[in-house]
Amino acid sequence: MQRHLISAADLTRDDAVLILDTAEEMARVADRPIKKLPTLRGRTVVNLFFEDSTRTRISFEAAEKRLSADVINFTAKGSSVSKGESLKDTAQTLEAMGVDAVVIRHGASGAPYRLATSGWIDAHVINAGDGTHQHPTQALLDAFTMRRRLVGPDAGLGQDLSGRRITIVGDVLHSRVARSNVDLLHTLGAEVTLVAPPTLLPVGVETWPCEVSYDLDSTLPKSDAVMMLRVQRERMNAAFFPTEREYSRRYGLDGDRMARMPEHAVVMHPGPMVRGMEITAEVADSDRCTVVEQVSNGVSIRMAVLYLLLGGNEPAVTHPSPTTPATRRSASASELRTTEEK
Ligand code: NCD
């Protein structure tokens, strides 16, 4: 693993599988009455959010707290950023406070990369979404959700997504989620098809490691997972499609379309959903839709990433179940105890 997590494209297959496997162990912590591990005790993590977010910010915060890190939340609104402070000055302020990791979301593509490579700070940098560029932990939690649903939590350990067919539908042009997913899914051996109106596909998409189609109906029967993207109105400065109705009719997922998918196939959405636009309420609320599961899986993935970047070489979290080999159990006995027990 590298020092920072900036792009899903930086992860090797083995890095990605290690993160998914570690997240599987973290998920078991969430099933305990006390959902806390002492792993990051004494370490400080800052959540630096320059752009609106609900689930990603809360998810990182939950992950940090479950690993016992000290958490500082910074949002641009209400900070000196609104007085014109630069990213460099903000970074140096954080450095002076001795933070160990910065989780950054920024409207400008490349901001996390700049932070990680500028020399302004020593901390680990985790990209929580930058402009239309990357959102690596989202791609990881999506891959984790697919592996759990399509292969199984235990059967999936050590496995990638070889041969799985994933369809990503909608506003690819503005979507960092789509970019990160294409990169990571390709690394994990899946076959990805993008479906979107031509106006919502970026220039150069033909060089991406995926197929492109304009016809959702013919792609659905060949999909193991269908990921719907939000139409990102806030990033649109022109008319990219005639009307909302026209968009929904061609690229929205409703009950009839969902019925064309294979029985085992799942519907995914990173949230926030625009019900009635890219997805109908019937689909969003169906058992095949993993949107709520994606949120809880996000906490496990972010715990895994923080653990692997900051936790050093300590043994991975193990669980005192009868199936855990005795050697491994004793090696990490202190890890296992909750903060309260210690
Ligand atoms: C996405 C984002 O912010 O990139 N949401 C998320 O992280 N859960 C996608 C979106 O806003 O549509």
Automatic annotation (TrEMBL):
<feature type="binding site">
    <location>
        <position position="271"/>
    </location>
    <ligand>
        <name>carbamoyl phosphate</name>
    </ligand>
</feature>
<dbReference type="InterPro" id="IPR036901">
    <property type="entry name" value="Asp/Orn_carbamoylTrfase_sf"/>
</dbReference>
<comment type="pathway">
    <text>Pyrimidine metabolism; UMP biosynthesis via de novo pathway; (S)-dihydroorotate from bicarbonate: step 2/3.</text>
</comment>
<comment type="subunit">
    <text>Heterododecamer (2C3:3R2) of six catalytic PyrB chains organized as two trimers (C3), and six regulatory PyrI chains organized as three dimers (R2).</text>
</comment>
<feature type="binding site">
    <location>
        <position position="83"/>
    </location>
    <ligand>
        <name>L-aspartate</name>
    </ligand>
</feature>
<protein>
    <recommendedName>
        <fullName>Aspartate carbamoyltransferase</fullName>
        <ecNumber>2.1.3.2</ecNumber>
    </recommendedName>
</protein>
<feature type="domain" description="Aspartate/ornithine carbamoyltransferase carbamoyl-P binding">
    <location>
        <begin position="3"/>
        <end position="147"/>
    </location>
</feature>
<dbReference type="GO" id="GO:0004070">
    <property type="term" value="F:aspartate carbamoyltransferase activity"/>
</dbReference>
<comment type="function">
    <text>Catalyzes the condensation of carbamoyl phosphate and aspartate to form carbamoyl aspartate and inorganic phosphate, the committed step in the de novo pyrimidine nucleotide biosynthesis pathway.</text>
</comment>
<feature type="region of interest" description="Disordered">
    <location>
        <begin position="317"/>
        <end position="342"/>
    </location>
</feature>
<comment type="similarity">
    <text>Belongs to the aspartate/ornithine carbamoyltransferase superfamily. ATCase family.</text>
</comment>
<dbReference type="Pfam" id="PF02729">
    <property type="entry name" value="OTCace_N"/>
</dbReference>
<feature type="binding site">
    <location>
        <position position="55"/>
    </location>
    <ligand>
        <name>carbamoyl phosphate</name>
    </ligand>
</feature>
<feature type="binding site">
    <location>
        <position position="135"/>
    </location>
    <ligand>
        <name>carbamoyl phosphate</name>
    </ligand>
</feature>
<dbReference type="GO" id="GO:0006520">
    <property type="term" value="P:amino acid metabolic process"/>
</dbReference>
<feature type="compositionally biased region" description="Polar residues">
    <location>
        <begin position="320"/>
        <end position="336"/>
    </location>
</feature>
<feature type="binding site">
    <location>
        <position position="230"/>
    </location>
    <ligand>
        <name>L-aspartate</name>
    </ligand>
</feature>
<dbReference type="InterPro" id="IPR006131">
    <property type="entry name" value="Asp_carbamoyltransf_Asp/Orn-bd"/>
</dbReference>
<keyword id="KW-0808">Transferase</keyword>
<dbReference type="GO" id="GO:0044205">
    <property type="term" value="P:'de novo' UMP biosynthetic process"/>
</dbReference>
<feature type="binding site">
    <location>
        <position position="272"/>
    </location>
    <ligand>
        <name>carbamoyl phosphate</name>
    </ligand>
</feature>
<dbReference type="GO" id="GO:0005829">
    <property type="term" value="C:cytosol"/>
</dbReference>
<dbReference type="InterPro" id="IPR002082">
    <property type="entry name" value="Asp_carbamoyltransf"/>
</dbReference>
<feature type="domain" description="Aspartate/ornithine carbamoyltransferase Asp/Orn-binding">
    <location>
        <begin position="163"/>
        <end position="309"/>
    </location>
</feature>
<keyword id="KW-0665">Pyrimidine biosynthesis</keyword>
<feature type="binding site">
    <location>
        <position position="176"/>
    </location>
    <ligand>
        <name>L-aspartate</name>
    </ligand>
</feature>
<dbReference type="Pfam" id="PF00185">
    <property type="entry name" value="OTCace"/>
</dbReference>
<dbReference type="GO" id="GO:0016597">
    <property type="term" value="F:amino acid binding"/>
</dbReference>
<feature type="binding site">
    <location>
        <position position="138"/>
    </location>
    <ligand>
        <name>carbamoyl phosphate</name>
    </ligand>
</feature>
<dbReference type="InterPro" id="IPR006132">
    <property type="entry name" value="Asp/Orn_carbamoyltranf_P-bd"/>
</dbReference>
<dbReference type="GO" id="GO:0006207">
    <property type="term" value="P:'de novo' pyrimidine nucleobase biosynthetic process"/>
</dbReference>
<dbReference type="InterPro" id="IPR006130">
    <property type="entry name" value="Asp/Orn_carbamoylTrfase"/>
</dbReference>
<feature type="binding site">
    <location>
        <position position="105"/>
    </location>
    <ligand>
        <name>carbamoyl phosphate</name>
    </ligand>
</feature>
<feature type="binding site">
    <location>
        <position position="56"/>
    </location>
    <ligand>
        <name>carbamoyl phosphate</name>
    </ligand>
</feature>
